[in-house]
Amino acid sequence: ALNCPVTDLSYDQEHGGGILVKTEDMDLYCENLVNAAGLFSAQLAAKLVKKQPKSQQQQKRNFIPRHYFAKGNYFRLEGQRTPFSHLIYPVPEPGGLGVHATLDLNGHCRFGPDVQWIPVATDNNVVDDECMGDNNPDEIDLNVDPHRADVFYEQVRRYWPGLKDGSLAPDYAGVRPKVHHPDLLRDADGGASLGFADFMVQGPQEHGMAGVVHLIGMESPGLTSCLAVSELVADKLLLQGS
Ligand SMILES: Cc1cc2nc3c(=O)[nH]c(=O)nc-3n(C[C@H](O)[C@H](O)[C@H](O)COP(=O)(O)OP(=O)(O)OC[C@H]3O[C@@H](n4cnc5c(N)ncnc54)[C@H](O)[C@@H]3O)c2cc1C
């Protein structure tokens, strides 16, 4: 069902079990469901968790954390030829892979993405039904703030000292779903963020809900690893109950 946003999920009690998927236009029934709703997957998963017996909800939520969001900005190279013929990855920074150099199919060079955390609007202890606090990814401003260029110059010059002033122009931005937020993971002195959390592929083996796999916090390298992730998803569905 293309262009058909899913609005609710529940287990179907009337039509022989399975999962009832409510969309804006129709109801669908399925035996298995892969929740790959990107920025909204935790929100969608929460709708199913909410229908579980109250005594089990917290346990299930432990496997399906809420989403936090980190914007990633890019700047493009203008007025100077790129010296690169392949991607350049610096050492990763907390929350991201570092400002790397990418080349598009036309050979144009972009730098990014950086990590711009969206402030946590709701206390982490208050896990609401929507699983994303007050942060709605649809409301995140995707314009690139030109002032962020200062940090880009500094970071890119670590591996390309020849980058000239005035060569970086704001380009596009995207939003990553995250399963943690550095403001909630500081050490006692308020110092560096503690811990790192990868994306999660949560099937019946983890959360105990039959027939459902939730892809939570699917940030980079979700695209690169999509074939491996799909095999993992298939395994979780095929092996459930065994
Ligand atoms: C700035 C940035 C740079 C990145 N760089 C890389 C990289 O270099 N390499 C890499 O591997 N990955 C990278 N990623 C991550 C990669 O983009 C994601 O891992 C990948 O897109 C996740 O794919 P997905 O299909 O799970 O989710 P998405 O691509 O987000 O797709 C989710 C889909 O679900 C739909 N949807 C949402 N809610 C509903 C609903 N209620 N009903 C119906 N449909 C719904 C959405 O419209 C969307 O079409 C980057 C991400 C960002 C933001």
Automatic annotation (TrEMBL):
Belongs to the L2HGDH family. Its cofactor is FAD. Its EC number is 1.1.99.2. Residues 3-235 form the FAD dependent oxidoreductase domain. This is L-2-hydroxyglutarate dehydrogenase, mitochondrial. It catalyses: (S)-2-hydroxyglutarate + A = 2-oxoglutarate + AH2. GO terms for molecular function: (S)-2-hydroxyglutarate dehydrogenase activity. Pfam families: DAO (PF01266). Keywords: FAD, Flavoprotein, Oxidoreductase.
